[in-house]
């Protein structure tokens, strides 16, 4: 069977995605646990009948929900993996942290990491006989990396897709952008106890496909827009200044603690990504590979030329290759 038809294809995308996706979803187990400060965190798991099946933990990005990942869950499950996926605090089906449910907010970035550690140790660990693999996207890549720094022996191998190791500040120099975030946060804290949106951020609204910077695939884009339309409880708007400040601090901590990483890591970079900073990904790979040669082969990311931010929702050619690269990496680290 050729790689081009091994995974679900765009032409099969409809209300139920791939044949069998709905049936798999009915087999899923959906539950919650109490995260830091008793915040209710939702998750889903899909277990193989084979007891010793390997496990992949999917770590979504900011504002994502596991409901968005049905197609990828189906494809990975068909490859023989147990699948676990978490909705981070403050997004998806998990408990929101502010009165305005639309605002992207977290009290401390470390709370994402601590929630994830509990998830791995107490949920994934109780259902899997071996260490899991991690497949993380964007903000999920930052969370997973911080977790692997805190718990260097917990994971067999990891793939980071478009990881949030730096923000794309556009024409603004990084230092000026960070100063702007700090200034807005300082004014906010003086005037109000309610976290404000950062400049240009607002409540949830769907973006037309022609203006989106996430994927070139109109069918996949429309499908996940429909998922958010049909499930209003998972809608999330822009980010607060506080969230940005916490994200910047976490990114600095990631680079400061690169020597603590022991897990073999592969980094997939979207060539036309304007959501996160590509140079930060390159810097990460170079520094990590120098210390741990088994990670980031040749010291560089795997680049998907022309791809937008969300590789696992891209057009078939790029998406298929991203999944293939991920599975190949996992199989190399049994």
UniProtKB/TrEMBL annotation:
Could you say which enzyme class this protein belongs to?
hydrolase
Which GO terms fall under molecular function for this chain's record? phosphatidylcholine lysophospholipase activity
Under Pfam families, the record lists: Hydrolase_4 (PF12146)
Q: Which domain of life is it from?
A: Bacteria
Coiled-coil parts of chain: none
**Matches recorded under InterPro entries:** AB_hydrolase_fold, Hydrolase_4, MAG_DAG_Lipase
Q: Identify the keywords attached in UniProt to this record, alphabetized.
A: Hydrolase
Ranges where the Serine aminopeptidase S33 domain occurs: 55-316
**What is the E.C. number?**
3.1.1.5
Q: What protein is this chain from?
A: Lysophospholipase
| Source organism of the structure | Colwellia psychrerythraea
């Amino acid at each position: 069977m050729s790689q081009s038809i091994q995974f679900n294809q765009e032409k099969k995308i409809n209300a139920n995605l791939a044949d069998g996706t709905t049936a798999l979803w009915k087999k899923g187990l959906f539950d919650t646990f109490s995260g830091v400060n008793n915040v209710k965190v939702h998750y889903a798991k899909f277990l193989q009948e084979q007891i010793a099946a390997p496990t992949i933990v999917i770590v979504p990005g900011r504002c994502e929900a596991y409901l968005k990942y049905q197609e990828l869950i189906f494809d990975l499950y068909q490859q023989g993996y147990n699948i676990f996926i978490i909705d981070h605090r403050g997004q998806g089906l998990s408990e929101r942290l502010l009165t305005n449910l639309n605002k992207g907010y977290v009290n401390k970035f470390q709370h994402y990491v601590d929630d994830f550690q509990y998830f791995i140790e107490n949920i994934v660990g109780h259902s899997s006989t071996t260490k899991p693999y991690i497949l993380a996207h964007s903000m999920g890549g930052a969370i997973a990396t911080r977790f692997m720094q805190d718990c260097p022996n917990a994971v067999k191998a990891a793939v980071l897709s478009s990881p949030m190791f730096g923000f794309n500040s556009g024409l603004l120099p990084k230092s000026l952008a960070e100063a702007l975030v700090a200034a807005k946060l300082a004014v906010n804290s003086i005037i109000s106890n309610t976290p404000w949106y950062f400049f240009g951020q607002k409540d949830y609204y769907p973006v037309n496909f022609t203006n989106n910077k996430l994927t070139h695939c109109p069918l996949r884009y429309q499908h996940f827009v429909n998922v958010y339309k049909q499930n209003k409880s998972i809608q999330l708007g822009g980010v607060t200044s506080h969230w940005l400040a916490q994200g910047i601090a976490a990114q600095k901590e990631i680079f400061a603690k690169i020597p603590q990483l022991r897990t073999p890591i592969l980094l997939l970079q979207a060539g036309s990504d304007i959501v996160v900073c590509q140079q930060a990904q390159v810097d990460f790979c170079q520094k990590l590979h120098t210390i741990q040669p088994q990670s980031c082969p040749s010291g560089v990311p795997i680049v998907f030329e022309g791809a937008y931010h969300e590789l696992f929702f891209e057009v078939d050619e790029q998406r298929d290759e991203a999944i293939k690269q991920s599975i190949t990496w996992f199989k190399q680290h049994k």
